[in-house]
Amino acid sequence: MAVTDEMLCFALYAATRATTQTYRSLLEPWGLTYPQYLVLVTLWVEGPQTVSGLGERMQLDSGTLSPLLKRMEEDGLVQRARSTADARIVEVAPTERGIALRGELAHVPAAIAGAMGVVGDRDDERLLARLHDLTASMHAARA
Description:
This protein is mostly helical. It has one domain (3-106): Winged helix-like DNA-binding domain superfamily/Winged helix DNA-binding domain (Arc Repressor Mutant, subunit A), CATH 1.10.10. Helix content is 66%, strand content 8%. It has helices at residues 8-27, 34-46, 51-58, 62-74, 96-104, 108-116, 121-142; strands spanning 49-50, 78-82, 90-94. Strand 2 (78-82) and strand 3 (90-94) form a beta hairpin. This is MarR family transcriptional regulator.
């Protein structure tokens, strides 16, 4: 047994990489990356967002998010526009093509849940709650 097999941090890292790779294979036919998919899901569920609000939700800084949104805009998935109330604020909304992808990608959450072995809402809720607690604990430890 390798020393990394006994490290919780490595197990989380490996699980994250495996999950991201699974998303990559599921999203590849649509030419989407996992972060692009997350942007679309956020816009589908929560509606148009400011760039800063989207960055907070996704835990991405503007140096990472801006190029991602630029690429999505070039691909016709989102549109960015300056707020009419405050020109310093940029708002992001899905385009018709971006909205249409919601139906085409409806199978993705179930495929991921199945790959994770999540078989019911209770399993899903427990895993999600534990991961949120872990994230909060790690952020607190960093501060």
